């Protein structure tokens, strides 16, 4: 009897030990799935969202076209979108309300950021010059046009050669107008005043063809100060012109973009340096130099320009 009781108790204890061992095993495995903290991804995502939100607040909104818009077509909300840029272009529009309903005067490409200049009248050439300049086309060939190597943005001196004939007793060569900016060569044009290309971007093949046409171009468009416009026009009619390219080290284009205008003294100097051209423009043959330097200098006439009228007055 004692042995049976003992064996029963031993069996119960064995079962209890097995149950306790199993329960302990189950409890020891429960924390395993929670071992990898879930907080880490949440924290990383929160930090990324915070950084993105802070960066978004520093960006500036810019109105951009989502598709091509033909000229004289009012803009709708479907044509526009807002993009956030680190640095907004100068003068760009920042809200859709500033552009909806407005009518551009020229074709605008998709991806173009809008400004008030986008709605101003005038073609590409009119937007490449300032109010005190005029764009004038000059006929050229391989000799006149620097062997076809002129490109928009170059600066050239316009030279005039006067042959000796019955109306011109002494041949001469002179600079008619110095430092003229080249706006376009043939069909190729440079940048407008807002820094945008005057012509749309071309593919590599089209650009190669355009360069070939530029070399063979027979017209060059120059930006001429208004005061010297009639002077240059007369020069194209009375003699042979040459375009002499100036060095890029002068940084004249940089000065132009910086807003530096030609000083009035330079224009006066350009007028005073002309020799014999004034007499030919007036239709009178130049007179031979008089003897006696002092008396000749005293009687030297003064050139007076009133609009397109040129006259000589003796002091």
From TrEMBL:
CDD domains: SAF_CpaB_FlgA_like
Domain of life, source organism: Bacteria
Short name of one Pfam family: RcpC
Domain SAF as annotated: residue spans: 60-120
Protein name: Flp pilus assembly protein CpaB
Taxonomic classification: Bacteria, Pseudomonadati, Pseudomonadota, Gammaproteobacteria, Pseudomonadales
